[in-house]
Amino acid sequence: MNENLFTSFTTPTMMGLPVVVLIIMFPSILFPSPSRLINNRLVSLQQWLVQLTSKQMLAIHNHKGQTWALMLMSLILFIGSTNLLGLLPHSFTPTTQLSMNLGMAIPLWAGTVVTGFRHKTKASLAHFLPQGTPIPLIPMLVIIETISLFIQPVALAVRLTANITAGHLLMHLIGGATLALTNINASVALITFIILILLTVLEFAVALIQAYVFTLLVSLYLHDNT
Amino acid sequence: MASPVPVKEKKLMDVKLGELPGWILMRDFTPRGIAGAFQRGYYRYYNKYVNVKKGSVAGISMVLAAYVLFNYCRCYKELKHERLRKYH
After folding, report:
1. Which of A100, A76, A144, A124 is nearest to A222 (CA)?
2. Closest-CA residue in chain A for B46?
3. Contact between A155 and A213 (Cβ < 8 Å)
4. Inter-chain contact A91–B60, Cβ cutoff 8 Å?
5. What is the distance in angstroms between the Cα of A8 and the nearest Cα belonging to chain B?
6. pLDDT at residue A27 in the model
């Protein structure tokens, strides 16, 4: 059983072909582009959701920060849809791979930092030292702030990976336990099944929340730097 | 055997069984032709099930069911070992 747990996280290849590229591109099919003033139900629903989310997310930014609207909205749509599709049986979730999450987190974080340094150099450097610190503590605090700055992209990526992977693993384990318990003791299997149902509901929430948190943090880093 | 209309321009349902290999060989297998085939297939499904006035959940759920089936075929080799059998 130990090998079975982790085989669902390996890169999917079918007869040697990298199917993973197709799987990453699959969610884009589910978001058709609006072509008219009044569209079909699917597109209207998606338009309404995107408007709701973008108004909420871009309210805190100034004009310069709002140029990132497309980036932030596509980010939350991609992570949300990929996580939700990963809850279907037997599917592969690209966001469980640390490589992909680092590939998303590092360029976005670096973009916000470089923007800050280019346009508000003094203010960006001033972030390294909180206001009102006693003078003897300054060197240590600058080091701590630098470390906390460089840990931001790593934390973004690892948070997403760990949450989604842990959820999937828990579902595998509890599902396997339920199946094994049905022959031994039916009532305990029922309890385990209820736990599995609750966990699945949690996973749906986590899928969306993680997308939101990722995007929110990127937008926060952007707000600091514009 | 030779029909009055050339084989190439016929639709699939009008091609006779004996002419089928010839019809398949005459299809456009260039990258542009294959891309066109995917595009035609996508829009055929989209316009029939999604791009309608009162589209229902069936439009997306058929796509998701096909996705689940595709992933099942992909992992079948590992799943073979988990069948409920007395002797594996």
Report:
1. A124
2. A32
3. no
4. no
5. 8
6. 93
**CB contact, 8 Å: B37 with chain A?**
no
In a domain, B1, yes or no: no
Q: How many domains does chain B have?
A: 1
Give A156 to chain B, closest Cα distance, Å: 28
Instruction: Say if the Cβ atoms of A91 and B63 lie within 8 Å.
Output: no
pLDDT at A208 over 90: no
Q: What mean pLDDT, rounded, does chain A reach?
A: 86
Contacts for A51 with CB less than 8 Å, ≥ 6 apart? none
Cβ contact A168:A93 at 8 Å: yes
Q: What is the pLDDT of residue A48?
A: 95
Q: Are A70 and A221 in contact (CB under 8 A)?
A: no
B66 located within any domain = yes
- Note whether residue B88 is domain-resident: no
Domain count, chain A: 1
Rounded distance between C-alpha atoms, residue A134 and residue A188, angstroms: 60
Chain A residues with CB under 8 Å of B54 CB are: 41
Average pLDDT of the residues in A182-202 = 86
Q: What is the span of the domain harbouring residue A86?
A: 5-223
* pLDDT bucket at A81, cuts 50 / 70 / 90: very high
What six digits make up the tokens of A43?
Answer: 């597109």
Q: Is pLDDT of A4 > 90?
A: no
